[in-house]
Design goal:
Layout lengths: L2 H21 L4 H11 L4 H26 L5 H55 L8 H18 L5 H10 L4 H26 L10 H19 L4 H24 L1
Helix pairs in contact: 1-2, 1-3, 1-8, 2-3, 2-9, 3-7, 3-8, 4-5, 4-6, 4-7, 4-9, 5-6, 5-7, 6-7
């Protein structure tokens, strides 16, 4: 771990997790592309670091949101979480398969391409303002399954897809959707990391960097959840859209240049 990593990694992770906790995006959407741009580590290592940071953020943010008085339906969260766990396992298997079949660099390009398409879809859904307002346990399960798979495969730990899909299908307000999103991220990342530890040689990675990643993720998650309780729904919506556009631009940089 060099001096640049010591300062840049925690700075990126704190900022990303503050934004991720407020918006329900999880932080990985910012962490992964920025760490990739720095170029200090390989893509599998960056995906692993991002997953650890997002998991710590989700744990600290969820605990803080509960203290803030945010109420969630236990049954709905249970079905969402079960789907997220299975989706996280499936996403990790698809990711490892992609590494083996097309290689790290091509997998990174595929992730960037899919991410841009999905982000554009999120912005479009937000403009259309469509809501189905369904309350079915099966839908919560399928929602968690699909979101867990996509978020882990893309290495972003959730992103705006969670919030957009939750708002589209269920009768939730933005703060409720962000909380449900963080819970979904929490369980998908648990299953993701368990699967990674079983099927990947993480001990070959540079694990010393975790000494700065984990505290930074904890600080970011707590601070983000604290700020979320003070912001209005309109402010969170605005932040959500700004971050989506910003990440589209960050993701486009390595593709164009």
């Amino acid at each position: 771990m060099n001096i640049l990593q010591f300062f840049l990694y925690p700075f990126i992770i704190i900022i990303a997790n503050v934004i991720g906790a407020i918006s329900g995006m999880g932080g990985g959407l910012i962490i992964k592309p920025l760490l990739s741009l720095l170029g200090f580590h390989s893509l599998p290592e960056i995906v692993f670091y991002s997953s650890v940071a997002v998991l710590v953020m989700a744990l600290s943010s969820t605990a803080r949101q509960i203290k803030n008085g945010i109420k969630i339906n236990a049954r709905n969260v249970t079905f969402l979480s079960i789907g997220s766990v299975l989706g996280g396992m499936l996403g990790q298997q698809v990711l490892q398969f992609s590494f083996k079949i097309i290689g790290n660099e091509n997998t990174g390009q595929l992730q960037a391409f899919l991410l841009i398409i999905l982000l554009a879809g999120v912005l479009l859904l937000g403009r259309l303002n469509i809501q189905f307002n369904k309350q079915l346990n099966t839908l919560y399960f399928l929602c968690g399954l699909s979101l867990g798979t996509v978020s882990v495969f893309l290495g972003i730990g959730g992103g705006p897809f969670n919030v957009a899909l939750l708002l589209l299908i269920f009768p939730l307000k933005i703060k409720e959707a962000t909380t449900y999103s963080i819970v979904s991220i929490l369980f998908s990342q648990v299953s993701n990391l368990v699967t990674t530890l079983i099927f990947s040689n993480v001990f070959a990675y540079d694990l010393n960097i975790l000494w700065v990643i984990i505290p930074a993720a904890f600080i970011g998650g707590n601070l983000g959840a604290l700020l979320s309780g003070k912001l209005s729904d309109r402010s969170i919506n605005r932040l959500f859209n700004i971050v989506v556009i910003m990440i589209m631009l960050i993701t486009l940089i390595p593709i164009l240049f």
